[in-house]
Structures are given as C-alpha cells and as structure tokens.
Amino acid sequence: MTHLEPHYRMTPPDRLPAKEKQPVHAVLHNVRSAFNVGSIFRTADAGAVTRLHLCGYTACPPNAKLQKTALGAFDYVPWTHHETLADCINHLRSEAIPIAAIERVEDSVPHTRYEWPRPVAVVFGNEVKGLTREELDAVDTVVSIPMLGHKNTINVATAFGIVLFDILRRWQAV
C-alpha cells in the first residue's frame, strides 16, 4: 500500500500542506461522551470542516478521553467553545450562516431530501436527550436521518459522519 501524502503524525501541523476547508460548521451541544467528541474531531478532519463549535458541557481539548479517540485531530480542526447553544447560534447568525439541527421529530426533513445550503451549520445534541423544542425552534430547519429499526436513535458520532459525508457528496466535494 502506498500513501499519497505524508502521514500526519510524521509531520508537524505547521509543516503540512494547506487543505481547502469545506463551508461546514458542526455544532455539538451538550454531547456527554468525550469519546464521541474525539471521534467527531477525526471525522471533521476527514471532511475538512471549517470549524467545530462545542457548546455547554461538551468536552473540549485538552481532555484525555477526547485525545484517545481524536488522535490529535484537534490540532487540524479549528474549534470554539460557546457557553450556550444560544450564544453559538447568535454567532453563526452574525456570519449569515444557515443553521440545520439533526433530530428525529415529526416535521423534520430527511437528510436525503434536504438541499444543503453553502455554507451551513449543523447542530447535533445530547446523545440521550437530543435537542429541546425551544432549541429546534431557534434554528432554520430540522433534518433527520431515516431509521428503519425499532430504536429511533443512532450514535451521535455515527450520525455526524452520515450527515457530513452526505453534505459533501451532494456538494460534489467527494
């Protein structure tokens, strides 16, 4: 197997070639598992997202559990911590970025049918409680991942990967 680029662990971050960022802002609100957050950092790097917005009690670097699954990806993915989701939404609105929340509710649009704007911010909530109706009312649209099984839920890191790469595929970035 031949690698086309130097492995990131062998090259200091400041010596890596610049990569074009995709105009995706991922928002993680009260994600309780640092392992999930670390996994999302790695996937965000793979998809070249513009920024991760970590809200509420979502784990932020430095954090040993986050480091275990992120494998240093937070050195490559810009991130910001916001005390509240409302603060984050206000910040994104000040930059005129449309905001879509990922949640299974009656009035949601399946991700396979949603026309993802460019740029876009995508909000993911707590693994157990999701997002409240008030939080959903604060965004522009609610998008869902169709579920075919009995459980009406999917791991937040898995959901992030599904949605991110659907956006990139629809934008013909991958």
Explain what you see.
The protein is an alpha/beta fold and 174 residues long. The protein has one domain: SPOUT methyltransferase, trefoil knot domain (Alpha/beta knot). It has five helices and seven strands. It has a seven-stranded parallel β-sheet with strand order 3-2-1-6-4-7-5. The longest helix is centred in the C-terminal third of the chain and has 15 residues. The protein is globular. The model has no long low-confidence stretch (mean pLDDT 92).
Describe the protein's topology.
Elements: E1 22-29, H1 34-46, E2 49-55, H2 64-70, E3 79-82, H3 85-94, E4 99-102, E5 109-110, E6 120-124, H4 133-137, E7 141-144, H5 156-170
Parallel strand pairs: 1-2, 1-6, 2-3, 4-6, 4-7, 5-7
Helix pairs in contact: 1-2, 1-5
Give a brief description.
With 174 residues, this protein is of the alpha/beta class. The chain has helices spanning 34-46, 64-70, 85-94, 133-137, 156-170; strands spanning 22-29, 49-55, 79-82, 99-102, 109-110, 120-124, 141-144. It has a single domain, classed as SPOUT methyltransferase, trefoil knot domain (Alpha/beta knot), CATH 3.40.1280.
* Count of helix runs: 5
Mean pLDDT: 92
Rg: 16 Å
Q: What summary fits the major beta sheet?
A: 7 strands, parallel
In percent terms, what proportion of residues is strand?
A: 15-25%
CATH class assignment: Alpha Beta
Helix content: 25-40%
CATH superfamily: SPOUT methyltransferase, trefoil knot domain
Spatial strand order of the main sheet: 3-2-1-6-4-7-5
Integer tally of domains? 1
The assigned CATH architecture is 3-Layer(aba) Sandwich
Structural class: alpha/beta
N- to C-terminal separation? 21 Å
The beta-strand count equals 7
CATH topology: Alpha/beta knot
Order of helices and strands: EHEHEHEEEHEH
Global morphology: globular
Low-confidence runs of at least 5 consecutive residues: none
